[in-house]
Amino acid sequence: HTKLEIVFFIYLWSIDPEAVKIAMSCFALFAYEADIRFGFDEAAVLTILPNYNIYMELSTASTTLVTTGRNALQKKILSLLRRIEYATPGNKQAWYDTFVSQQHLAKFLAVYPKRVDDLGSGGSTASSPSVNASETSGFVGSGYTKFGKRRTGVHSSEHDIEDVFHEWANMTGFLCALGSVWLPIKNRPGQHGIPADTRRTSMEPVSSDLHYCPVTQFIGDCLKYLVCQNEKFGLQIQRHIQDLLGHELNPLCYPILFDQIKIQVDKFFDANGQVICSEQNTQFIDNVIVIMRSVFEMKAQQAAQNSLEGPTTTTGSSNTLVVPGNNTGSSTSVVGGSSNDPNSSSTASIDA
User: Taking the domains of the chain in order of start, what are their residue ranges?
Assistant: First the structure.
């Protein structure tokens, strides 16, 4: 089950729209399995599949989304990934495997057309502490790093290089939207079954645990690429980082974003508190302003929308479970979910 979940999630950032849609449709299989096994016990369904509704929406979107364009498809996927509330072994591992591959491609693009000798070697990235280390290295080593090596060799065609860039962009968006699954949050059920801690405001101070979270390393690395000077991809990388951090980042990751921005900006002052003026520092600040403006505008729009909609009800909760009947033609039942996150024990602080 976990390995299937990993594969389905990872294919969501594929540059092949048809492969993406097939992966999206496969998420319904988890829901069907849960219905068959525990169809009359909604609490049990939520226990084994806490992200039931999002998985069903992913599957439905694979058939209802009219456009076949890459960008529109990815936008829809990212909007759904941001709504995933529960960490599972599958979505956490998929995020981490994608993070490792994304690092390799980012290094390659940043120095292109030079060669990155350690591409696919894993670099300085440590193995994930919450999953079996041998499984991590085996999964990545047997597929995605070899794929990266093959696709980004020194003799790759111009078309292949463009595909690598688009793949990096899809990976980066995926990591932004799903980053909350690696946050050290204890998913205790609150009112209407929504974990109280996951409903906290996104502007809480960054805890010490977050400094060792791989999402922190990911966001910190993204900010560094805001001043990427590569002749071919530098400007494109900067623009994509601006857009993805500003519009696609999971709101629960905002504290990490602002903390990492502060860390970078602090380096622009000398020991006497004087600003260190340079073209690169100015470029970084300009790009960060764009990101921050996007974040604040989105928060303002959400606040305005919430004020118009009024308080949410139980049936409006994203944890409301719609369980199809076991028999053909039977009506569906709508039940407010109230279960513990089965993976809460595996959500831990990280070694990034």
Answer: 2-346
Burial of 218 (C-beta count, 10 Å sphere; 0-12/13-18/19+): buried
| 336 bridge partner residues | 320
In one-letter notation, the amino acid at residue 113 is: P
Highest-confidence range of 32-46, 158-172, 305-319, by mean pLDDT? 158-172
pTM of the model: 0.74
> Residue holding tokens 């990266």?
148
Mean pLDDT, to the nearest integer, of 175-196? 66
Does residue 261 contact residue 241 with C-beta atoms inside 8 Å?
Answer: no
- C-alpha 37/C-alpha 53 separation (Å) is 17
What's the confidence (pLDDT) of residue 6? Answer: 98
Query: Roughly how many angstroms between the first and final C-alpha of the chain, as a whole number?
Result: 27
What does the pLDDT look like over 109-159, one tens digit per residue? 999 988 755 444 444 333 333 333 333 333 333 334 444 444 444 445 778
